[in-house]
Automatic annotation (TrEMBL):
It comes from Streptosporangium album. Residues 158-206 form the RNA polymerase sigma factor 70 region 4 type domain. Interacts transiently with the RNA polymerase catalytic core formed by RpoA, RpoB, RpoC and RpoZ (2 alpha, 1 beta, 1 beta' and 1 omega subunit) to form the RNA polymerase holoenzyme that can initiate transcription. Residues 235-305 form the SnoaL-like domain. Gene3D superfamilies: 1.10.1740.10, 3.10.450.50, Winged helix-like DNA-binding domain superfamily/Winged helix DNA-binding domain (1.10.10.10). Keywords: Sigma factor, Transcription, Transcription regulation. GO terms for biological process: DNA-templated transcription initiation. This is RNA polymerase sigma-70 factor (ECF subfamily). Belongs to the sigma-70 factor family. ECF subfamily. One of its GO terms (molecular function) is sigma factor activity.
Amino acid sequence: MSEVFSARTVDTAAEATEGSDLARARDGDDAAFTRLVAPLRRELHAHCYRMLGSTHDADDALQDALLRAWRGLARFEGRSSLRSWLYTVATHTCLDTVERRGRRALPIDLGPSSDRAVLGDTPLNDVAWLGPYPDAGLAGGLAGPEARYEQREAVELAFVAALQHLPGNQRAALLLFEVLGFSVAEIATTMDTSTASVNSALQRARTIVAEKVPSRTQQQTLREIDDARLREIVAGFSAALESGDADALVALLTEDVTWSMPPLAHWYHGLEAVTDFAVRVPLTGCGSWRHAPTGANGQPAVGCYLWNDDAGAYLAWSVNVLTLRGEHVAEITSFVGPDYFTPFGLPASLP
């Protein structure tokens, strides 16, 4: 009984503090506003990433959304929670970005796979590429009872990539309903439309996502692999690249494995094509590698570092996100570029 009373006391105190900070923020106290939004920043940032497919765009969108919220706080009448209102502001901010920039892509969206290694492949810098999301940025969130996707499932690469094939309004409706647990009526209010329009958007969005997302999520797969075995798989992948051991690498892969490397357009499908690429490029054609384990999009990942003679160090090269099927690697997505390392808290170089 005392524990229940204590919890109620804490909740009441928190509500009083929030109410006090809200009043202060409305009077122009930016420190009070910062305190109000601080507990929600991580989940709002993840929402912006799901909408936009880029941590950089999510950074910008969240900053813009919070600025809009700060300037428009007087319009918040308290008929919904502050969290719901902030999601409304963030969603509209993301929709503005989607309208300006369009969707983000992976190499698989641009054309067929290559049967053999393409040497001297050059980056396509005019394409808006999907990017990885650091697991450290994920928060549990406060999804409502109708939410179907877990918070980590909702940042898996396959799901975020599928979202990019949806128009902005369908993307927003699906995320608000299936990930965050907003009701259809709440979404209609958020998006200034009718419940019929929301239901129609949800139906179309579900159809497209179901066609593109595997029925089995990575979270379901990972729950069946104990942590020690998962570390072995990641360590084996890294060791095979570092030692140039093609046989060890192939032993980790599925027969229908894919390997893509945005911003490079060419990608590879099937064990023969992936092996040819691996042998001719990372295993023998690039130089010496080192790796650091990390987590991205709720999936195992490694930061890959390539030796640079001029620097006398291993420099950040790519963040490789691994998609597993059973205890084998079914997809390797190598996000090439040192800029990806900072959000993961990975160093720019290794000695």
